[in-house]
Amino acid sequence: MESTTEKNIATFTHLSALTKYFIPFGNYIFPIILWTSKKDKSELVDESGKQILNFQLSLLLYSLILLVIAVPTFLVTLFKNTSFQSLNYNNDFEISNFNFEGNIGLLTLGFTCLLIFALLKISEFFLIIYASIKTSNGEKYKYPITIPFIK
């Protein structure tokens, strides 16, 4: 049976991942601080710390993969039919012969990656809230689509 203090620390471990909206890398720093402070004394805090860190690292990996696909796709699509001689004397860049029909597959791939990225970020917020509610009730929560980096 976990004490109220252990439940609160485990809950704040999950909620501390939301500090990324205010402090860069706060979603890694604060969960690590809370987790390492009590991981030896509470099984719930230990499990919660591992889960939130694995979830954040998994989301980082997924986000990087999606951006590595989306950014080059948009750049290739944009510059595929554009010559670099279209710079005029005002240094304005003009795209005159862009063809949507020939690039619809690449544009769809790029927009699909951006859509998945947006859905990941929205679901991350709600999953963190849900996990913190479950943990505050003393239950262990396992995030979906998480790679177990820390065991």
From TrEMBL:
UniProt-annotated location(s): Membrane
Record's keyword terms, sorted: Membrane, Transmembrane, Transmembrane helix
Q: Name the major location.
A: membrane
**InterPro entries from the xrefs?**
MamF_MmsF (IPR019109)
Q: What is this protein called?
A: DUF4870 domain-containing protein
Q: Which stretches are annotated as coiled coil? A: none
Give the transmembrane ranges. Answer: 21-38, 59-79, 104-133
The species this protein was found in: Flavobacterium pygoscelis
UniProt membrane topology term: Multi-pass membrane protein
Could you tell me which Pfam families the record lists for this protein? MamF_MmsF
